[in-house]
Amino acid sequence: MSEGAGAAAFGRVDPDGTVYVRTSAGERSVGQVPGVPAEEALAFFIRRYEALELEVSLLETRIASQTVSPDDALGSIKTVRAAVSQAHAVGDLDGLVARLDALIPVIAEHRAERRAERARQSQEARDAKERFVLEAERLAAGNDWRGGVNRFRALLEEWKALPRLDRATDDALWHRFSSARTTYTRRRKAQFAQQAEQRETARLTKEELVAEAEELATSTDWAAGTSAYRDLMSSWKAAGPAPREADELLWKRFRAAQDMFFAARQTAQSAQDLEFRQNLRAMEALLAEGEQLLPVTNVAAAKAAYRTLLERWNAIGKVPRESIRPLENRLRAIEKAISEAEDERWRRNNPAARARAEDTAAKLEAQIIALEDKAARAEARGDQRAAQEAVDSAATYREWLAQAKKAANDYSP
Predict the structure, then answer these.
(1) Using CA of residue 374, residue 379, residue 383, residue 388, what is the dihedral sign?
(2) What would the pLDDT profile of 314-373 be if each residue is shown by its tens digit?
(3) 26 DSSP β-pair partners
(4) Domain map of the chain by residue range?
(5) How far apart are CA 300 and CA 311, in angstroms?
(6) What is the sign of the dihedral through the CA atoms of 251, 253, 256 and 262?
(7) Which residues are registered as beta bridge partners of 29?
(8) DSSP letter at 27?
């Protein structure tokens, strides 16, 4: 049976064209369509019912999909229910009312869900804002002057995107957040003002350092200049940063002066190194020449040659630092050999020493004669033991005598 046929079961038409609808409250007239067949008159009011039924279906769909708020849905139900209750239409009007009434608990459930969702969202927003407040207060107490600005900006945008809480809670959290941001901003401005003052002081200090560096750039006192630039660099680092543009320009001037000095020093040192190497070769040649005097056979000639060598040595000049000690050691070795040869010559020609040596030899000879005489007397009386002791002693004295004679001969001119 079609919808029209089903709806027709709830209505009838009088011969005069009056159309009635049946409901749980009874039968009532919905209108009159005279001069037309009963089916046509009934169909007219059935179409009205179908329009109402479509409106109820649409409302059911909207409520099920929650595209309409609970309050608006209740208002729509009230409006449609009133229209259905008084409708000049033929169909299951009680069924439409029942369908509309069945939507009320659905709306209540949706309202509870929405309430729970709002409570959840409100708690999440509160938790988020409390986190933002704690982070803002931490930033306000810190010294992150660059990253903190960006973070405060991001926190503020996130705060704006969150729903409002109850007035008292929202105002209290916002007051803490805003106070932290204000505190941070004031401290940051004060810090930057202090930094600006420090940078300006650093700029003035570095200008003075640059002036000193440029004055030193043409100095040829390499040791003093190097020490001065070292001190200037320490002062530069201690001065701290100046404003960036000024700092870069001042640093370029400082480095240019420093580079000029050290380049000139390098050039001078390179020339000096060449001169020192040439001096080294000259001294090594002199040493080789002096070492030809050894061993010394003619002290007077060796001393004269050494004096000449020293004069030439002193006229040469400086050599590389690491070569000084080896050169001096070789030179002292030559000098020592000549000195020892001279001492030996003097010792050999010392009359007193020669006399002492000859006297010692004479005394030893006399002692040997006495011992030989003693041995002969002991032999004569048959005392072999005493004779042998005297012979042994005489032998010992002969060895000493040989040494004494050799010493005496060494003192011969």
Answers:
(1) positive
(2) 999 899 989 999 989 998 999 999 998 888 888 777 677 677 777 787 887 888 888 888
(3) 23
(4) 3-117, 119-196, 199-270, 272-348, 351-410
(5) 17
(6) negative
(7) 20
(8) E
